[in-house]
Specification:
NhaD-like, transport, mainly alpha, signal, 491 residues
Length: 491
């Protein structure tokens, strides 16, 4: 009887699972993806171009109207895809074949979304634990000169951006530079510019450091180890403008800081979890061909369990009040530092405006690709124009157009590039954003930070960046020449 009962339950469960899968299987059969259309000269194509131009124009002039850049991009992408689905429903009687096209772009975005979310969650957790504030205090207490701090902050931005999103590194270094450069607006401006260039350069030589490099890695155009070929060109890109700016930085030293760095409980272990996460992500991709997001989510899970442990193991601590080095405020900070933290507050602190901007941008690019515009552009750029020249031109365009969007567009063109051309494109798009303050996420973040904490026209500004653009441009072409010199056989 027991055997019959178990068999009956097994059959019922199997039937239930099969019944749940039937709609999915039927949908998969009915929604074979539509082939890309050639609608460049149709009303639908013209409508998509007009909406795209308007959305980008509003997004790029965010500082003038104070409307976040995500809003026009998300709205624009929705309008274009609504138009595509409506057109196919009217002209072909059904738009079911369009859904897989949209979903393929959505899948690419979902991986980017999760990757950036995990990366910024770790950064927010380390910020909450006081790690970067302690770094600021240590730099202030060491009595380095402003010239030394100029190089230290630049080198830190370069190194950190190889494992943390460059846009986040730019914001972090901007905060540190503001704190240690109080009363020295010229230092703040030059160090801020140096940090932006360094963050873009460091992020270019690693698929973990930038949106455009992540796309190249995600689409398997370059293997993780092949990004190492960009190391020397990226170092050159950072050093050339930094050496030129070095002589304009004052030799004075900032005033000694009496702050005492206090790391919150678990801070060092969070750094260890961060290193473990990125090591697992890289190694699993290199040796197991596992998508990068699997390793990142593994690390996020460990961070969540560790936050739970810190919260559950809280104790009451008290620092000896007779110790002269600490006042009552510092004692309260010390006591608070022993408490746990809520990891979901760190997730909530992610830059959602940037993430939504990329959703809109990637959906718009996917739509233009489906309509045939990217194929036409690819034919012009990579057939009628030399591929090397085209890649340099695309890199220069990234000084005013987001490099992640440009890279996603090129990937949708499917150019038949050898490894050398993918390296060149990755390099020019990564460091081309340094040519203007509005050309990269680090630049925009540092600009916003300076506006909030500096007087008008002081510190890092669009005008200051424009004044030093020739030095940055020299570094741009020097890095390209270095790439050909070091890796000429890859072309």
């Amino acid at each position: 009887m027991k055997t019959t009962s178990r068999r009956s339950k097994t059959l019922q469960l199997s039937a239930l699972i099969f019944a749940c899968l039937l709609p999915v299987l039927g949908f998969a059969q009915e929604t074979a993806a539509a082939t890309p259309a050639d609608l460049k000269y149709s009303f639908l194509g013209y409508f998509a171009i007009v909406v795209t131009v308007m959305a980008y124009a509003i997004a790029m002039t965010e500082d003038l109207h104070q409307l976040s850049k995500a809003k026009p991009m998300v709205l624009g992408s929705a309008l274009i895809w609504f138009a595509i689905f409506t057109y196919y429903s009217i002209e072909h009687g059904s738009a079911k074949t369009i859904a897989p096209i949209f979903q393929s772009n959505l899948t690419a975005y979902a991986e980017l979304f999760l990757f950036i979310t995990v990366s910024m969650t770790f950064l927010n957790a380390m910020t909450e634990r006081g790690i970067f504030d302690a770094l600021r205090i240590v730099l202030s207490n060491r009595q380095y000169s402003y010239r030394q701090l100029f190089w230290i902050t630049g080198a830190l931005a370069f190194v950190l951006s190889t494992v943390i999103s460059s846009l986040t590194v730019g914001l972090l270094m901007g905060y540190i530079i503001l704190e240690i450069g109080k009363g020295q607006p010229r230092f703040v401006g030059l160090a801020g510019l140096n940090a932006v260039v360094a963050a873009n350069a460091g992020g270019t030589m690693s698929p973990l450091g930038g949106i455009s490099t992540f796309f190249v890695w995600q689409q398997n155009m370059l293997h993780f180890t092949e990004f190492f070929y960009l190391t020397i060109p990226c170092i050159v890109n950072f050093l050339v403008p930094a050496i030129i700016m070095h002589f304009s930085v004052t030799k004075e030293a900032p005033a000694f800081s009496r702050d005492i760095p206090i790391l919150k409980r678990g801070s060092k272990r969070i750094i260890l979890i961060f290193i473990l996460t990125f090591s697992a992500t890289v190694l699993s991709n290199v040796f197991l061909d596992m998508p990068a997001i699997v390793g990142m989510m593994f690390g996020l899970a460990i961070l969540q369990f560790f936050a739970y442990y810190l919260t559950k193991s809280e104790k009451t601590y008290r620092l000896a009040t007779e110790h002269e080095a600490y006042d009552e405020h510092e004692i309260q900070i010390y006591i608070a530092s022993k408490k746990g933290f809520d990891v979901f507050k760190c997730i909530a602190g992610v830059d959602w405006d940037t993430l939504m901007f990329f959703y809109g941008a990637m959906m718009i690019v996917g739509a233009l690709s489906f309509l045939g515009y990217l194929d036409a552009m690819a034919h012009y750029l990579f057939t009628e124009i030399n591929a090397t020249l085209a890649n340099v031109m695309i890199g220069l365009a990234s000084s005013s157009i987001d490099n992640g969007t440009l890279m996603f567009a090129v990937l949708n063109m499917h150019p038949p590039f050898p490894v050398g051309q993918w390296l060149l494109l990755t390099l020019t798009l990564g460091v081309g954003g340094s040519l203007l303050a509005i050309g990269s996420a680090p630049g925009l973040h540092v600009l916003g930070l300076m506006k909030a904490h500096m007087k008008e026209g002081e510190g890092y500004t669009f005008t200051l960046h424009l004044r030093w653009m020739p030095a940055v441009l020299l570094g741009f072409f020097a890095s390209i020449a270095t790439l050909f010199l070091v890796n000429g056989g890859k072309f």
